[in-house]
Each structure stands twice: as structure tokens, then as C-alpha cells.
Write a structure and sequence with these properties.
Layout lengths: L1 H11 L4 E2 L2 H8 L12 E3 L4 H14 L2 E5 L17 E5 L6 E5 L4 E5 L4 H10 L2 E2 L12 H6 L7 H4 L6 E7 L5 E3 L13 H5 L8 E8 L1 E2 L3 E9 L2 H15 L3 E8 H10 L14 E9 L3 H17 L5 E4 L3 H12 L1 H8 L2 E2 L2 E3 L5 H15 L4 E7 L4 E7 L6 H21 L15 H7 L2 H14 L14 H8 L10
Parallel strand pairs: 2-4, 3-4
Antiparallel strand pairs: 1-2, 5-6, 6-10, 7-11, 8-9, 8-10, 12-14, 12-15, 13-14, 13-18, 16-19, 17-19, 18-19
Helix pairs in contact: 1-3, 8-10, 9-12, 13-14
GO biological process, one term: respiratory electron transport chain
Family: Belongs to the FAD-binding oxidoreductase/transferase type 4 family.
GO molecular function, one term: catalytic activity
Length: 489
């Protein structure tokens, strides 16, 4: 290991190889403070060539690499394990915007760019880059691509995969593959781009991307609707889709419990409503380039029927940018409010929209029957079927009590998701935390195909070991895969 560190230091320079334990700490602990790993060093390359050379040096020493962006993930996919035989490769120094092509509506950027900076650069060029997350002020685009991030604008613009035209990737042997040509049509073989997006750094290290830009939508209308049930929310979603059509950019479901928690734990945050007494709320946004007065009138009309039919008790339409920002600010503070409350068991799930009301109703009841007193804080992107189904400790309990529940509680939730043809991970990935869940819910053939790709692109298992894919033998034994089926071993 000393020779590895010596070689890295000689190549990258002593300032760009961190070996002191206190200085390594921010890179080896995940954002939620659940996983605390170890690394023999942290490397900070500043170019694609430096990434490639670092990979070649590590490969020569047989040392694994954990690629890391902003380390804002929810599933500990960007931190090392406990053994300490990996290096962390932080891409935060690779933060250049290489090109903005307004005629082609593309932006080519390096993996270490902060998402918020990309939004602002696009805006300065008269364009829109619509990927938007609560952590956009600190997350890096490389991490967004590695997890196929979603966010609040998926309803109109799609996940990170749909926003990406090309990639530059350093492979496990140090070779560089690039498709940064800005082509929207290239039907000349397998789409390698999609293999790397969402692979959580286990197949290659994304160093740059060519991203889609869109026309700006200067006219935005935002509303917060108070609703009696999730059924009413899905009905309102259908009405908004019919009326607003492609102008509908966001439709967020928020439980009243979530907003009350924000009000309690973030007293400095301006709340959009004086009273938060409804069980459910929906935050809705439409954005377009049409005539402002007429569009506002149409936006108001969307809610008239649902109020008359008592499917919504109240609807507040923002009359100013400050009001709209207060609505979105309350939504974006939910994660911080949960963190302030203490540990919680998080589930990032995806379901057919039609199944969501029954899932929430029945799963809430099952949880209270088996774990009476636990508190549900459910919110998410109803428009694309993605819920953040969070369960917090009992009012009289503590974090240790919640931790003891976690295995059985998550099994209950994920089994309910499986029964309704859903997914245990919608936008956050698998990371280190959900590999056992992947074993349980992925079909053996899917796991074999995934491992076949992994073995081909990373035959020595040097890229982000322990993340996303479990080790081969345990899942075979657990799922009863026979030796005849071990086609990818």
C-alpha cells in the first residue's frame, strides 16, 4: 500500500492525495452518517487523463476505487467499506463547463460540476437544464448520472438518463470511452451510454457528459392543494394532466405530517400556509411560454371542480415569486426536518400511480398493527409514481428502538411494493444499504445478466466493490441458483 500511495503522490502531487485520517473523514462517511468506512487514501484528479492514469496505477497494484461526487446520496453508494483497502476518487476538481451549444441545445460538462452551477450556466445562455434536486447546491452531476437521479421535474423532462446525450467514461483498465458528440440519433450499435448511467460507479467512472438543454419557460404557476386522501391526489393529478398537458412540470405529494415536521423543526422557514391541518397536500407547477393572464386563468380553472366536489378542501395559488418559493422551500426542507428529528428508515420506492393510494393506505395500517406508534412521513413525486416512504421512531422511543425494527419493517414495506409490481429503488440507487434487498427482489436471471456486464467491464472487481451488486456466491446460495445456471461466474 505504501508503494501505491507513493506512486499516486508522485503523479498527482502531495496536495491531491489525502492520507491523514482526519482529512479523510469527510470522504469516508455517508451523508446520513449511517456508514463509516475506511480508505487507504483519497485521490483528487483534475482531468480525464489524471483519472485514467490513477485507475491504471490502482489496477497495477490491485487496489479498488470508490468514485465519489458530492457524497450526498441516501444509500451510501459513494463511500468505501470497512476493510480500508480501497482509495476514494473524488471528482470535485473536475468542474469545468467545456461547451454550451445553444444551436444544438447541449451542454458538455465535467463530472465534478455542481448541479446548481449547471442550472445557472444554462440560464445565462438563455436555456434551461431542468434536473432539480433538494441537494442541487452540493451534489455533482457525475453522481447524478451514476444514480440516474430524478427530482421534481421528471414528470416533464425525465430522469438524468433522458437528459443525457453522451458520456465520457474511464474504464476499469484505464481506457477512455467517449460519446460526447451531441448526437440525438446514433443507431450504430448498443447504446453504451445507458449501461453506465445508473451503474453507481461499478462499471466505469463518468468524467464528463453532454446534456440536453431546453427553451426557458418564463411563465410559471405554482399551487398548493389541501386534500383529504391520496385517492383525491391521484384524481387531481389526472385532471391536471388533462388540462395542462405538457405544461405540467411537477406534481408532488406531501403528507400533512411532513409539513408539520418542517414547521416544528425549521421555525425560520417561511411556511406557505398559516394552518397545516389537512392529511395530504399536493404541490403543483405548470411552466410554459404562453400569455400570462390567460394561463393563470386556466390554472385556476383546474381546481374549481375538485373544490366543488370536495376532493380538495383548499387550494392556494401563488400570487408572487416569494409565495411560490415558500411552497417549494417547505417541500425541500422535509429531508432536513427528518434529519433534525432523528434517525428514520427510508424507502425510495416506485409504483404504478394507480396503485399508490391502496399501497399507502394498506401499508400504513400494516405498520401500525405490527409496530404501533411509529410515525410515517411520506412524500414524493406522485407524477412519476415515486414515493419517499419514511418511517420514524415512536414518540416515546429512541433511535435504538427504531434500529431494532429496521429489518422487519423494511421487509414489510418492500414486500408490499413487490405485491403491487413496484420497485424498491426509484431514484436513489442501491448503494451499500440495499444490496440485500436487491438479492431478494431481483429475478435470478436479471442478477446473472447484471453480473455478466460487471464481469466483462470490470473483471477484477476494482470499481466500487460492495456497491449495487452483492458478491456472487451469497446471492446464488440464497436464491438457489444451480451450478448449471452460473453462466456468468
Amino acid at each position: 500500500m505504501k508503494k501505491l500511495i507513493s506512486d499516486l503522490t508522485e503523479y498527482l502531487g502531495p496536495k491531491n492525495v489525502i492520507i491523514d485520517e482526519p482529512d479523510k473523514q469527510p470522504y469516508v462517511v455517508d451523508w446520513r452518517k449511517i456508514i463509516s468506512g475506511k480508505a487507504c487514501a483519497v485521490a483528487l484528479p483534475s482531468s480525464t487523463e489524471e483519472v485514467a492514469s490513477t485507475v491504471r496505477i490502482c489496477a497495477a497494484h490491485g487496489v479498488s476505487i470508490v468514485p465519489q461526487g458530492g457524497n450526498t446520496g441516501q444509500v451510501a453508494g459513494a463511500v468505501p467499506g470497512e476493510v480500508g483497502e480501497s482509495i476514494v476518487m473524488s471528482l470535485k476538481r473536475m468542474n469545468a463547463i467545456r461547451a454550451i451549444d445553444t444551436k444544438n441545445n447541449t451542454m458538455t460538462v465535467e463530472a465534478g460540476c455542481i448541479l446548481k452551477n449547471l442550472q445557472e450556466a444554462a440560464n445565462s445562455a438563455g436555456r434551461l437544464f431542468p434536473l432539480s434536486l433538494g441537494a442541487e447546491g452540493s451534489c455533482l452531476i457525475g453522481g447524478n448520472l451514476g444514480t440516474n437521479a430524478g427530482g421534481t421535474q421528471v414528470l416533464r423532462y425525465g430522469n438524468a438518463r433522458e437528459l443525457t446525450i453522451g458520456l465520457e467514461v474511464v474504464l476499469a483498465n484505464g481506457e477512455v470511452w467517449s460519446s460526447l458528440r451531441g448526437l440525438r440519433k446514433d443507431n450504430s450499435g448498443y447504446d453504451l451510454r445507458d449501461i453506465f448511467i445508473g451503474s453507481e460507479g461499478t462499471l466505469g467512472i463518468i468524467t464528463a457528459a453532454t446534456l440536453r438543454l431546453f427553451p426557458q419557460t418564463p411563465i410559471r404557476h405554482t399551487a398548493l392543494a389541501a386534500l383529504p386522501s391520496v385517492d383525491a391526489a391521484t384524481e387531481l393529478l389526472s385532471r391536471c394532466r388533462d388540462e395542462a398537458q405538457e405544461a405540467l412540470t411537477a406534481f408532488e405529494l406531501i403528507s400533512g405530517a411532513c409539513l408539520r415536521l418542517v414547521q416544528q423543526n425549521c421555525p425560520d422557514k417561511r411556511m406557505p400556509l398559516h394552518s397545516i391541518d389537512s392529511p395530504w397536500y399536493c404541490l403543483i407547477e405548470v411552466a410554459h411560454r404562453g400569455e400570462n393572464g390567460r394561463s393563470l386563468e386556466n390554472f385556476h380553472r383546474i381546481f374549481e371542480d375538485v373544490i366543488e366536489c370536495e376532493q380538495a378542501s383548499d387550494v392556494l395559488v401563488a400570487q408572487s415569486l416569494a409565495q411560490a418559493e415558500a411552497m417549494w422551500g417547505a417541500r425541500e426542507m422535509i429531508t432536513s426536518a427528518l434529519a433534525h428529528d432523528g434517525k428514520c428508515i427510508k424507502h425510495d420506492i416506485s409504483l404504478p400511480i394507480s396503485e399508490i393510494p391502496a399501497f399507502v393506505r394498506e401499508t400504513d395500517e400494516l405498520l401500525q398493527a405490527r409496530y404501533p406508534g411509529v410515525r410515517n412521513f411520506t412524500f414524493g413525486h406522485l407524477g412519476d409514481g415515486n414515493l419517499h416512504y419514511n418511517v420514524a421512531r415512536r414518540a416515546s422511543g429512541d433511535d435504538a428502538d427504531l434500529h431494532a425494527m429496521q429489518p422487519g419493517l423494511s421487509l414489510l414495506v418492500h414486500d408490499a411494493v413487490e405485491r403491487r409490481s413496484g420497485s424498491i429503488s426509484a431514484e436513489q440507487g442501491i448503494g451499500r444499504i440495499r444490496t440485500a434487498d436487491l438479492i431478494r427482489y431481483k429475478a435470478p436471471l436479471e442478477l446473472q445478466l447484471m453480473w455478466a456486464i460487471k464481469r466483462t467491464l470490470d473483471p477484477n472487481g476494482l470499481l466500487n466493490p460492495g456497491v449495487l451488486l452483492p458478491s456472487f456466491e451469497p446471492w446464488m446460495e440464497l436464491r438457489g441458483v444451480s451450478s448449471a445456471d452460473r453462466c456468468c461466474r
